[in-house]
Amino acid sequence: MEKGYIHSIESLGTVDGPGVRTVVFMQGCVLRCRYCHNPDTWECSGGKVYTAQELFDRVIKFRPYFGKSGGVTVSGGEPLLQAKFIYEFFELLKESKIHTAIDTSGILNEHVKRLLTKTDLVLLDIKHTEPEEYKKLTGSEINAPIKMHSYLVKNNIAFWIRQVIIPGINDTTDQIKSLAKYCLHAQKYELISYHTLGLNKWKKLNIPYTLNGIEPPSKELMKNLRAALDEEVNILKHQEKSH
Question: pTM above 0.85?
């Protein structure tokens, strides 16, 4: 029986998948995103330890809030670092006919492939589309989310694409247009405004914050980028139908 390391549990999440959801934030992450609002989830050894049954027994209490459209999302940190544990947890959820979702930056191995057989939806976070800029932003290579995306498309696994928009880093029209190829087969895609709500955690953990002075993007910029993304996705859909 696997043990899971859990950072926290949010009972009424409304932004991490369809409907009202319980969101389980897992400990541990390989990325070091410069804008991360949960740097306290980075270390794998932190948090509270649960068995899959113990976690299930806790989240099932929130089932009345799910309605017909909600469910449970595991986030982080990077939840796929604990894929074996989440597989056991999702088995219990699927036995109770509860919708399951994973919010991830992308990891693909045999444990993750097995877990995806119990996963209804993947929320795939594409931080940046250019390899060098991706590494500057996250400290890691871009290969993992690309491989994950290809696997989801090839195996007809439902997914959403997300990107946090940070002024001066990934807010150009060209960058957004290059994101479109990841959105083409997605059930939904979201552009999320950068914010500094987690800045106090960086200070508390004494981690240097390198995005000081960057303001959240304006509503007008977000609207324009979304329009550019919609347009490019529509162009790609038209091209795909033509072939």
Answer: yes
